[in-house]
Amino acid sequence: MSAADFLLSPSVQKLLQVLYGNPEEPFTTNELAQKTKLDAAEVEGTLAHLVGSGMLSRQAAKEELPETVMLDRGFVFYRELRRIALKSFAAAEPVRAMLRAKFKDSVVRAFVLGEDKNGIVEVLVVHGAVTPDEAAMTAACQKLSKAIHRHLQVHVISSARFDRLTPRDALAMKLAADTAFEIVAPGDTRARLKPERAGLLHSAKKTLAALSRSARGGA
Q: What does pTM read for this prediction?
């Protein structure tokens, strides 16, 4: 279930997932039916509703070219709906589900930093003591990209580097932007942070002190 279910039907979400992933591309009814795996009749009916509401524009058939539809950037709620889609069914929810399922032992935090005009979604992943396997992360992101019809640009950094980010760092500036939001928070997964150096030093000192007392007692 998506957080956007109260606002958009599942069929509308599937269609918008494809359309927002390719905002400048026109689609025929059959192409959308194939990509969304929806019945062609259901797609046709849903498209008629979206065109009628102003969300989509319809391009008439020309010569041998079939009729197509595409997003209408002039729609009064275009930006708001695109933002809702990004924060739910179009990116945030599937990315969150993938990270929690496949990298629950390594990922401690994750953020969607935003998307560009071509629909490419930028994601920041922060890992803890365990570093996620690079090949596994790449494969999982590629598979997800195909499923959600979006290209993903993923940055993976350690929690130590995340804590050292300064306001002048490129990632820090993106995190501070209005387009960024968190999708995996601390405690959402089983991942653990690396012990701090100070903690390790303190533990080592206690161990040495105990050994010293033991040695004196045995002398």
A: 0.82
**Among 1, 152, 25, 153, which residue's Cα sits nearest to residue 89?**
1
Q: Which domains does the chain have, with CATH numbers?
A: 10-84 (1.10.10.10), 91-184 (3.30.460)
Which range has the top average pLDDT, 1-10, 30-39, 199-208?
30-39
Mean pLDDT of 128-155: 96
Q: What is the chain's length?
A: 219
CA distance linking residue 35 with residue 45, whole number of Å = 16
With H, G, I as helix, E, B as strand and everything else as coil, classify residue 184.
strand
How far is residue 105's CA from residue 85's CA, in Å, rounded to a whole number?
A: 28
Residue type at position 43: V
For residue 110, the SS3 value is strand
Q: How does the average pLDDT of the chain come out, rounded?
A: 91
Query: What's the one-letter identity of residue 128?
Result: G
Q: Which of 167, 164, 147, 157 is nearest to 111 (CA)?
A: 157
Sheet holding 152-158, edge to edge: 152-158, 121-127, 107-115, 181-184
